[in-house]
Amino acid sequence: MRTQKRCLGYVAIVVDDYDRAIEYYTDKLGFTLVEDTPQPGKRWVVVTPHPESDCNLLLAQASGERQQGFIGDQCGGRVFLFLQTDDFWRDYTAMKEKGVHFCQQPREEEYGWVVVFEDLYGNRWDLYQNALP
Fold first, then answer.
1. CB atoms < 10 A from the CB of 108, how many?
2. What burial class does residue 29 get, using C-beta atoms within 10 Å of its C-beta: 0-12 exposed, 13-18 middle, 19+ buried?
3. 10-130 sits in which CATH class?
4. DSSP state of 41
5. Measured between alpha carbons, how far is 97 from 123 in angstroms, rounded to an integer?
6. pLDDT attached to residue 2
7. Do residues 103 and 118 lie in contact, with contact meaning Cβ atoms separated by under 8 Å?
8. CA-CA distance, 4 to 6, in Å (whole number)?
9. Looking at the predicted structure, is the pLDDT value of residue 98 above 80?
10. Other C-beta atoms within 10 Å of 14: how many?
11. 81 FRET partner, CA 20 to 30 A, in 10, 21, 36, 57?
12. pLDDT reported for residue 33
């Protein structure tokens, strides 16, 4: 009997410009560009935090005024995405040095280290590392 694996493959994030978004996510956050394929009237652009990750970001350039209104506010001001790391201080320091905007100071919680940052568009993210058991 075959076991079926289910996971999120892509999370779409609305951006204003493909190239600007690619530059930010790869240069500032250290993501890898997985695919950039032209399609009629758009591009299929995928970035990932790690090449072996099962979940990737699909950078979707806004098409029209309605979609443009969601750039930077895809979750109504709440933390939208959660970037898990195996070395919190390494990634926090590297991102800070590259100009990523952090909304607060890092803090230790019962589950590990966490800090909120905003991406290029103002979407809020958690950078976090789980505490070791």
1. 11
2. buried
3. alpha beta
4. T
5. 19
6. 67
7. yes
8. 6
9. yes
10. 21
11. 36
12. 98
The rounded distance, in Å, linking the Cα atoms of 62 and 40 is 15
Quote the tokens at residue 52.
Answer: 């072996």
Decide the pairing of beta strands 124-130 and 112-118: antiparallel
- Select from 72, 52, 37 the least CA-distant residue to 7: 52
pLDDT, one tens digit per residue, over 121-133 is: 999 999 999 987 6
128 in Cβ contact with 118 (< 8 Å)? no
Tell me the one-letter amino acid at 96: K
Give the angle 34-80-36 at the CA atoms, nearest 5°: 15
The number of C-alpha atoms within 13 Å of 4 and in the hemisphere containing its C-beta is 1
Q: What is the pLDDT of residues 9-66, one digit of tens each?
A: 999 999 999 999 999 999 999 999 999 999 999 999 999 999 999 899 999 999 999 9
Amino acid at 6: R
> Is this structure's pTM higher than 0.85?
yes
Site of tokens 């950039």: 36
